[in-house]
Each structure stands twice: as C-alpha cells, then as structure tokens.
Amino acid sequence: MAGPLLRSIWSTTRKSLSSTPTPSVHSAALKTYVYVRAFSAAPALASAADLASPGGALDPGRLRNVAVIAHVDHGKTTLMDRLLRQCGADIPHERALDNISLERERGITIASKVTSITWKENELNMVDTPGHADFGGEVERVVGMVEGAILVVDAGEGPLAQTKFVLAKALKYGLRPILLLNKVDRPAVSEERCDEVESLVFDLFANLGATEEQLDFPVLYASAKEGWASSTFTKNPPDDAKNMSELLDAIIRHVRPPTASLDAPFQMMVGIRCEVYIPM
Fold it and tell me: What is d(CA 224, CA 70) in angstroms, rounded to the nearest whole number?
C-alpha cells in the first residue's frame, strides 16, 4: 500500500523548484525525515521509474544520504552551490541554500537544509549543516539520519574547534567521513601544507576514538569557489576536469546506501523545529 503513496509524494516534491521552503519526504524504511528543501537539481533528475526497483518502489541501492559538515566558513554552502550546478540546478545567487535573511546577512548557516541531486542514476540527498558552535545541535540531529558525511576542512587553516565537534558527532553515529580539503587554490596552500593538514585530521580522528575503517578515510582536494574537486593535489586541473565529478563519484563509491525493507509497513519520522522570539 505504501508504494503508490511514496511515488506520489516523490513526484510532488520533485516539482518544487522555488526558493519557498517546501517539505521533503523520503521513505522511513530509508531513514525518512522531513526537512526544508530549498532547491533541487530537477533538470538533471532521472524519472522515478529510472530509480525504481523491479517491484516499482524506489531502489534503496541507488540512494545516498550525506551530510556536509565543517567549521564555520570553511566552504560548505559554496560547495553545495557547485554540486547543485554540476547536476543541472538553476540557482539564483551564490550560497543559495542560505535562504534565511539572518543567514545571508551574517554569512553563516543557521538551519540545516536538504536538497536532492541525481548523479549517474543515483539519488543523493545532501544536507548542508551549520558550522557555528551555537547551532551544533542541528549537526547532531542530521548525522543521526544519514549514512555518510563530507568533512570540509580549509586547507590553509586546518581543523579548528568546530571541526572537532562535528567530526565527533559523525564518528559517534558510525559514519566514515570523506575528507575534502577545500580552498587549495589559494596561493599560500601548498601540497606540503595539505599533507600537514591531512595528518592533523588523522590525529583528530584517532583522538576521537575512530575505528580502523573510519581512519581509512578518502581524501579529496577542492576549490568550491572555482567549482572543482580532485582526488590528487592540484591547484589548476585541466579544463575538462574543472568540475565536481570526482567528489560525486567518491560519494557513490564510499557512502553506503540506506538499509531498507521495502516490504515493511510505511513509516515516517518528522522533525519539528520550534523558534521562540523574546521581545527586548
């Protein structure tokens, strides 16, 4: 009975491309949750039939649920812009997922945002999370609902206080993060500096009690501002490689699909955020 309902919900949410926040619903057997979906890479999306299993339900093996975590201002939201554009979304301005006026005014992410992109017949549910310590509770809620994480670290600054906090939460929930060293295009960032930062991040993993599998994390190098990621260090990749393909491929390769029972009864987990305003 849940199959037609899920397909109906799925079809409805895909049609929403405006900046008005709209609910996004996925099957709870697939760790379902409701969050704000501000933009979707609809022009590149495959049809529901293309992503469906032979029984007509969405094939969980083609899903990836991924959180993007980092210290504040290390490039998460800019990275999300580039991933959306890579997969065909028409977004109106930079840092498009920061759609709350206070976020745009201060240049920080306050509330998590979820969006979906399709890459090589796989559906990627990506969650942009806050990086500021005051909103750390958002991160913990998100990493409990995904199977993978991209840990973004500024290659010049290295891991900072909130890097430790968000990584601890990801490791606690058994995630195996992909390390993305961002802003490698900056003049002060060298290959030796990237090696140093990678070692610092490894030590941070070890100090936080990471398992052997978690310690064997993939490493990529990127300039979210310029819109590219690479599996090897470079400051100027070839023109045909100046894109996010290698990061998207790494997500498909290293993040496990959600565990799902398509024969189980329909369930849905709903998250509600309450905001209280106190007049001064």
Answer: 13
What is the enclosing helix (H) or strand (E) of 113? strand 113-119
pTM: 0.73
Instruction: In whole angstroms, give the CA distance from residue 13 to residue 25.
Output: 8
Of 3.40.50.300, 1.10.287.1080, 3.30.1240.10, 3.30.980.10, the CATH number of 41-254 is 3.40.50.300
Q: What angle do CA 276, 278, 280 make, to 5 degrees?
A: 160
Residue partners of 152: CB distance under 8 A and separation at least 6: 68, 69, 70, 74, 75, 76, 79, 180, 182, 224
CB neighbours of 246 closer than 8 A, spacing ≥ 6?
220, 229, 230, 231
Question: Structure tokens of 7?
Answer: 């397909």
In this structure, are residues 59 and 73 in contact, taking their beta carbons and an 8 Å threshold? no
Residue type, 35: Y
Query: Is 9 strand, coil or helix?
Result: helix
Cβ contact 41:124 at 8 Å: no
Residue 276 structure tokens: 């209280």
Output the pLDDT for position 92.
Answer: 59
Position with higher pLDDT, 166 vs 15: 166
Q: What is the mean pLDDT of the chain?
A: 75
Could you report the per-residue pLDDT of 144-198, keeping only the tens digit for each?
889 999 999 999 999 998 899 899 999 999 999 999 999 999 999 999 999 999 9
- Secondary structure E strands in 145-235: 148-154, 178-182, 219-223, 228-230
DSSP string for residues in 8-50: HHHHHHHT--SSS-EEE---GGG----EEE----GGGPPPTTT
Backbone region of residue 257 per phi and psi (left: phi > 0; alpha: psi in -120 to 50; beta: other values): beta
Please check whether residue 175 is in contact with residue 148, taking contact to mean a CB–CB distance below 8 angstroms: yes
